[in-house]
Every structure is written in C-alpha cells, then in structure tokens.
Amino acid sequence: MSTLPPLREVIARHGLSASKALGQNFLFDEQLLDRIAALPGSLEGRRVLEIGPGPGGLTRALLRAGAQVTAIEMDQRCLPALAELGEAFPGKLEVIQGDALKLDHDEIMGSEPYAILSNLPYNVGTALFTRWMGGEEWPPLWTSLTLMFQQEVAQRIVAKPGVSAYGRLAVLAQWRGAAKLAMKVHRSAFTPPPKVMSAIVHVEPAAMPEGVSAKVLERVTEAAFGQRRKMLRQSLKGMPGAVEALEGIGIDPQRRAETLEVSDFVALARALS
Ligand code: SAM
C-alpha cells in the first residue's frame, strides 16, 4: 500500500476532472475512507461489491481492509487508474465498466454472499437502494449495504413515525432490515464539495415477516404516503379491501400514514397479501 501514489496525483496524471453529469464528488482523506470501509465490520477475506469507485479512493480502503473487491464504474476514464490499483493488489480487484442500474449484481458476484459499499450520485444511489431493498427474494445475497446519501435522504431512510421525514423509504428500509445512520460526512470532505451535507447509511437484512408480499407492501405505502396529509380512509380508497383490512387489524382509518409504525404497514400488507 505504501507504494501507492497519493489519490490527487493519480487524478492529475489520468486527467480525471470531476464530471458533473456523472455526479462525481471524490473523497481523498484516507483516514476517512478507512473509517467508511470499517463500517460493515472486518472485511478480511470478504467479498465486496463497490458501485462507482471513480479514481478508487474507497476501493483502496476496501483492499487495505483485506476485501476481495468487484467494482462497477460507468466512467471509462477511471479504468486506467483502477487498473493500476489492481496491480498493487494482485488478484483482489475486478473492475467492470458499465451502468450499475442495468447490471444483475447477484449474477456478477456468483452465488456467495457479499457486502455492498458505495458513494454514488443521489439519483443512482436511491434507485439502487430501492432495488436492493425491494426484492421478493429474502434474505438477499448481499449481507449489508453501506451507502453514502445526501443527509436529508439518509434521514428519510432511518426515520421513525411521527416526523415529516418518515415515509416510503423508511418503511422500505426497516420492514425487514435494520437501518442506521452510521456516519455524517461534511461537504468539505469531497472534491468538488457538493451543495449539501452527506451521511452514510448502513443496513443489514433482518428476518422476512411471514405471509407478506414485498409488492403489496410497496403498493400500500405508495398509496398511504402518496397523500400523506389525508386520513388513511381517503388515501387507501383506491385499494380494494384496504380500509376494511385496516379496521380488521385494529387501526383507526382516520389516522394518517405517518402515525403508523412500520409493523402496522406490515400487518396491513399481510392482510392484503
Ligand atoms: N467512490 C469514489 C469516491 O468516493 O471518491 C467516487 C464517488 S463519485 C460520488 C460517484 C462515482 O459513481 C463516479 O465515479 C461515477 O462515475 C460513478 N457512477 C455514476 N453513475 C453510475 C452508474 N450508474 N453506474 C456505475 N457507476 C456510476
């Protein structure tokens, strides 16, 4: 590792000016990167899928931690820098050039469990998070998600009932997973600095509640929070049987979505599944 040149030098040598279109905000602070790589616990000998390695700051930290890394990067310009990194850790880094939104991650990783880490642009991160958390098959092959989001989105993921941040993302993250806000990251840690603060969310899959379809739960929360200021009696009107199911499990249809616990949504989805 000591033979690796500083990240800033790698970026200058490979002409990797940050692309706004690709949402590139790079992290250079190796201590911070090591702390991020430590969030899933020891990575020694573990398989890791990193999305969006860019010039490879977090990738270095993952490799230093002893992980076997597969990285998916869309920007071709980053490939030579990542190839250099691969040479410094022979056999430990595989880089796939492509759009992570279009690839089948389980297929890429084979049949063994893997941890996922990423520092991605906001829109891509949220789309992938929704996909990872929303699968019908549970437990998933991935063992943890450690993902950088803008702080406001991170707060929505870990929110509890009764606050305005509580909504679909919170239910999605918490109904069969344990989600925590693992670390706040100041905007000044990035080059170039983004407009808003960031935070890392760590999610581990939990047991799947029995008799609940992920699709039904998704439809229920979409309807309930789609009109979050309205009573559930009104917002769930379009879902046949939903209001009766609410009453059947002892939830007053005059309540609003943001007052329901995640377990209440699960019970409602079970009644409708
Ligand atoms: N991981 C590096 C770091 O922390 O310094 C770079 C982070 S930068 C915020 C996001 C990276 O994700 C960029 O390198 C960008 O090219 C890549 N990226 C953006 N959209 C992507 C996609 N759909 N699939 C794969 N990589 C993507």
Features:
single chain; 273 residues; alpha/beta; Rossmann fold; Helicase, Ruva Protein, domain 3; 2 domains; 7-stranded mixed β-sheet; two-stranded antiparallel ribbon; 12 helices; 9 strands; binds S-adenosylmethionine; rRNA processing; S-adenosyl-L-methionine
Question: Concise description?
Answer:
This protein is of the alpha/beta class and 273 residues long. It has helices at residues 7-13, 30-37, 57-64, 79-88, 105-109, 122-134, 151-158, 168-174, 214-226, 232-235, 242-248, 262-272, and strands spanning 26-27, 47-51, 68-73, 93-97, 114-119, 142-150, 177-185, 190-191, 198-205.
How would you describe what is shown here?
- It is found in: Cytoplasm.
- Residues 32-207 form the Ribosomal RNA adenine methylase transferase N-terminal domain.
- This is Ribosomal RNA small subunit methyltransferase A.
- Specifically dimethylates two adjacent adenosines (A1518 and A1519) in the loop of a conserved hairpin near the 3'-end of 16S rRNA in the 30S particle. May play a critical role in biogenesis of 30S subunits.
- The chain is of the alpha/beta class.
- It has 2 domains: 7-205, Vaccinia Virus protein VP39 (Rossmann fold); 214-272, Orthogonal Bundle (Helicase, Ruva Protein, domain 3), CATH 1.10.8.
- It has 12 helices and 9 strands.
- The chain has a 7-stranded mixed sheet with strand order 4-3-2-5-6-9-7, with helices on both faces.
- It starts with 6 loop residues before the first helix and ends with a helix.
- The mean pLDDT is 95.
- It binds S-adenosylmethionine.
- S-adenosylmethionine (SAM) binds at residues 22-27, 51-54, 57-58, 72-75, 78, 99-101, 119-121, 124.
